[in-house]
Each structure stands twice: as structure tokens, then as C-alpha cells.
Amino acid sequence: MNLFESTYDVIVVGGGHAGSEAAAAAANLGSSTLLITMSLQNIAQMSCNPAMGGIAKGQIVREIDAIGGYSGIITDKTAIQFKMLNKSKGPAMWSPRAQSDRMRFAEEWRMHLEQTENLDMFQDSVNGLLFEGDKIVGVKTLLGLEIYGRTVIVTAGTFLNGKIHIGEKTFGGGRAGEGASTGITEDLVARGFEAGRMKTGTPPRVDARSLDFSKMIEQPGDEITSKFSYTNTKNLTEQRSCYMSYTSPEVHELLRQGFENSPMYTGRIKGIGPRYCPSIEDKIDRFASKDRHQIFVEPEGWHTTEIYVNGFSTSLPHDVQYKALKKVAGFENVKFLRFGYAIEYDFFPPTQLQHSLETKLIKNLYFAGQINGTTGYEEAAAQGLMAGINAALSIKGEEPFILKRDEAYIGVLIDDLITKGTEEPYRMFTSRAEYRTLLRQDNADLRLTPRSYAIGLASRDRMNKVLEKQEKTDLFIKFLKETSIKPEDVNDILNEKDSAAVSQSMKMFKIASRPQLNFNDVKRFPKVKEFILEHEIDDDVVEQTEIHVKYSGYIEKEKNSADKLQRLENIKIPLNFNYQKIHSISYEAREKLSKIQPATISQASRISGVSPSDVSVLLVYMGR
To answer: What sign does the dihedral 452-376-120-399 (CA atoms) show?
Structure first.
């Protein structure tokens, strides 16, 4: 395809995590796709911390992988450390996290995109959008090109009118060393879109050779590592440690001396920052009673000396950053590679989107990532994947691919954005998901690969693995329910675990469900050993079986609750419904419903300001 003469099915603006997943998904669904980015060298750049996953974020990466995205595969290929967080809690809380080699991560993404059929890449800056009536038809670039596309996905990250702050110094930029993007916001506002400003920050990067790690607490990875992807990527066999240190009252006092020149406190920064990832100055101001805060020392790769100083995000003057960090244990002789900074950028309140991530005002225009007010690579990648899928499906005239709240964290993320909006950078937590027992990291493939396979994204090989996993899990559960074990085969193990001995044969399912036993103990039962060998049961199947045995009651309860929600999800609200004519619902509810235009009664019930009595009136009005 000639870049300058043909019309693409999908044009993706921006090559970050959202843009990369969007381009890959659209191309893999058969759409001719163009990814335009300001720098081909910085594809999927880890602009902030060199890590993927974490609490709830790890579940999102596994969901992306289950659907057929690339983030999990690339994380596995470039990881330098792996941890499963929250293992002391129930499986609904287990969250995988990996430190990545930042340079290799971007390189691997570039290689994957270059090997993706139907995908072209081009380096230029998009500074305008092309419209015909209420439809998007293409983009304009800094070089003066007009490139046409049937759909456009904007994934501009922090680049839209980006402004970087270090102390009293302010300059335009999307991230350190890269310019801002102008023109897109102005075109959209002229079309009636509402825009706002947000901010985020990043800490200094320092030279590992200047640090004294003996004064820090080592943070190694898990002894037995796992991975993100359900494909045949390899588990880590070698890892790099992270380290931990602490600030002190002396550090805090030095930082406070810079407050009068801080853009946060002088009012130069107007955007709202992330509540759950505050700057160091914000932490010592908001939590004045704390005399220390954790500092995580994270290597940026296998072979680089660059260190990411997690927990020390700041926009204070560079001399203040230097003086304060030198007082942290292990940093006495620190050499800076880059100072921390804050960045302000434009975003568009996501209530202006449909659940497909298509905008309500302009047809065939999609937003994904930080343009929607989110923060984090994982949240951005998930939105990019969904926008790419839906843009490709719209080209084919097919229904959009929308995940519900009981199907995926991705469904929770998008539903929260569309129905509730956000006034601060949105970050995913397990607490946001009311069905988190169903949405575990271990079963993302069982939940989502069949849905993805049905639209043609997940491969036949992926689907076969899911079917095999489900079949073997069902077989293992059936075996435990139907097979008895004799006292002499189990009592020694029960005594070891301080669990009551049995006096007669008993079904293994009942014994396996005892809280004192885990499945490493169950695998020692003679008949279980034989079953596992005979049926080639792998660790994933064992994990699925154990979770079912231990938590089946909780899982069933959440399924019943989700079924009740589904009844409201099935009650559709006509497009552009006139809520103003229903005077028996509150004025606030009429205002919010008119603005957001929910597609179903269930979505309406989740909008802030819509009360249960308002929902009851809507149900009556809809004939229920």
C-alpha cells in the first residue's frame, strides 16, 4: 500500500503502549493499519518505571494476553525480575509483577510490530484531524501530509500540549527529550469536545555505580518464578534484585526548602495529579506525621547502570533534588543521569466515549490511554487493544467487542471511565472490581480467549490450550469428588498439618478442601500422584483445581450476583433517549443521564448521582 495515496482502514496516532496494542490488534484482525509516531526509536517506551503488572495491573496484562495482545509476551521476553504479589492473601488478590529491561522492552515491541502483517509504521507528528461532517476521515501531519483512514485511534499519551516542569523551569514536551504535540486538542475542542488538564511525574534516574547497595535492603524476585503470557514464553531462570531505602526527617526538611519554587505549590501546574502515585513533596506535605517514606531502587535493565528511583517522583528544583537525595542511605555519592520532573498534558473526559471507545460526537474516532484520563502502561495497553479491536470490527460492519464488569478488569476499567468519568488520573485497583473472585489472574485465558477467538483475534493454538486446560481441570475436580482415600494413605499428612485424622475412607475433595492443606500436600496422596502422571496434569491445571476446591462457595456466590446484574444489563435504553421528559427522577439524574447516555439500565445505575429510586422509575418507564 502506498502511504500517501491509499486510504487505510485504521490509523493509530501515537506509538506508546496504547498505540502499539491498538495497531497490532487492528492489523491482526485483517485491517490495513498505519501507526504514526513521533519517534520510531521510542515505540512502547517505558516513560516512567521499568515494570509491568502489580496490584490489579497484573490481572490486566494477563487479560491482554488472553485476548491476543502482545504486552504479556513482550514482558516475559524482557523481564529481569518476577514477583507474584499478595500471595499471603486469597487468589483473587494475587497479582503478577515484572521488572523489565527498558531498552529491550521497546526493542522487542518494535520487532513484533515490524513482523505484524497489514501494519505500516511512519515517523511524523500528527498536528490535525480531517473531518467530513460528523465523521473522521484522516489526519494531518507536521510535514504537511494528509493521510486518509476509515477510522482513527488517538493514543497521544502525555504529548497533547505537554508541558514539563522542573522547579521554576518550564518547557514544552511530551517526555524528557521529546517535543509536545499540538493541534489535535484544538481541532477536537472546535468540534465540541470538552478537554481538561492532568499531570503526572517521574523521579530522577541515577548511576548505579555511585550507590552503596550495602546500606539498602535487598528485594530479590520470587524463588519459583511465573510469567504473564499463556503462550510458550519462558519463566525467568536468572534475576536482578531491586533494593529499598528510606527517606528521613533530614531529607524531608531539605525538600521543604524547595517548596517555594515548586510548580505544584506556586500554582504553575493546573492539572490534577495521580492520587495513588504522589510526588515526594506531596507525600511529605499530606503525610506530615510520617518521618520516612520508602524508596525503591529499580535497575532499568540487564546491562545498564541506570537506576529508577521509585518513590521519589518530584518537580522540585534540580539542586533541591540533588541535596535531598544525597541524604538517603546508600545515595551519599549519587550521580544523576536525569532529574525528576512533572508533566502537564491535555485529556478528554471519557464520558464523551461509548463503551467501544468510539467518541459520541465524531463517528469512527476512538480514544485510548492517557487521553482518557488514565495512568499506567497496563491501563493504556488495555484500552489500546480494545480500541484497535473495535475499529477493525467497525470496518467489517460487525458489533463492537465490549467486556462486562463480571468478565474482565478491562471491562471494569472502561465501564468506570464511561459511566463515572474521572477528575484525576485513573488507576486500577482490585477494590474497583466487585467480582474480583471471578476475575483472577490465573483464569484470564478461560474467561477471555473464547471471546477473542470468536472474533478472529485469538489463534486456534491459543483456543486449543484453553480447551485442554478446562477439560483437564474438570477431570481433576471430578476425580477428587468421586475418589475415596483410606485413612492409612492420608493420616500421616494430616498429622503433619495439624488437621484432624480420619477414621474411615473419605472422598478426597472433602479432605482437599481443608484450610490446613494446600495442593502440594494433596499431590502426595498416592492416587493423586498416579492421576497427575497418567493425565499429564500441569501446574496451571493444579492451580485451577485448587482454587475451585477451596473457593467454590465464594465463586458461586459472585456468579449469582453477576447474573442479577446481567438482567439489568439486558434492558437496553434507546439511543439519544430524552431523560428530561421523565420528571419523576431527580434533576441531577436527568442531567447526568442526558450527558452520558448509558446504553443499558445497568450502566445507568452506576452513574454517580443516579439513585436506586431513579433506576426504579427508569425500569417502569422501559416497560419492566
So the answer is: positive
- Of 487, 497, 475, residue with least CA distance to 542: 475
pLDDT level of residue 279 (50, 70, 90 thresholds): confident
Q: What pTM does this model have?
A: 0.92
Query: In this predicted model, which residue has the larger pLDDT, 71 or 286?
Result: 71
Q: What is the mean pLDDT of residues 79-94?
A: 94
H or E element, residue 280: helix 280-286
22 and 155 in contact (C-beta within 8 Å)?
yes
- How far CA 524 is from CA of 358, 516, 528, 543, in Å, comes to 53, 15, 7, 15
Task: Decide if 313 contacts 303 (C-beta within 8 A).
Answer: no
pLDDT of amino acid 173: 85
Q: Which grid coordinates are listed for 567?
A: 438482567
* 170 close to 164: Cβ distance less than 8 angstroms: yes
The grid coordinates listed for 437 are: 473472585
Longest dimension (CA), the chain: 84
C-alpha grid cell for residue 106? 521497546
Nine-digit cell at 509? 475433595
With respect to CATH, is domain 205-343 assigned 2.40.30.260? yes
Distance of alpha carbon 41 from alpha carbon 23, whole angstroms: 16
On whether the CB atoms of residues 542 and 550 are closer than 8 A, the answer is no
Residue 1, pLDDT > 60, answer no
Provide the mean pLDDT of the chain: 92
What is the structure's pLDDT at 4? 67
CA 145 to chain centre: 33
The amino acid that residue 620 corresponds to is: V
Q: What is the pLDDT of residue 269?
A: 63
Q: What share of the chain is helix, strand, coil (3-state, %, to 5)?
A: 40, 20, 40
User: Which residues, other chains included, contact 619 with Cβ-Cβ below 8 Å and sequence gap of 6+?
Assistant: 571, 601
Q: What is the pLDDT of residue 119?
A: 98
Produce one character per residue of 235-274: b if its CB has 16 or more CB atoms within 10 Å, e if not: ebeebbbbbbbbbbeebbebbbebeebbbbbeeebebbbb
- CB atoms under 10 Å from CB of 474, counted, come to 14
CATH superfamily of 7-199+345-455: FAD/NAD(P)-binding domain (3.50.50.60)
pLDDT of residue 263: 67
Q: Where are the alpha helices (DSSP H) in 517-586?
A: 519-522, 526-535, 539-569
Compute the distance between CA of residue 467 and CA of residue 474 in angstroms, rounded to an integer.
Answer: 11
Number of CB atoms found within 10 A of residue 366's CB: 29
463-567: CATH, from 3.30.450.40, 4.10.910.10, 3.50.50.60, 1.10.10.1800: 1.10.10.1800
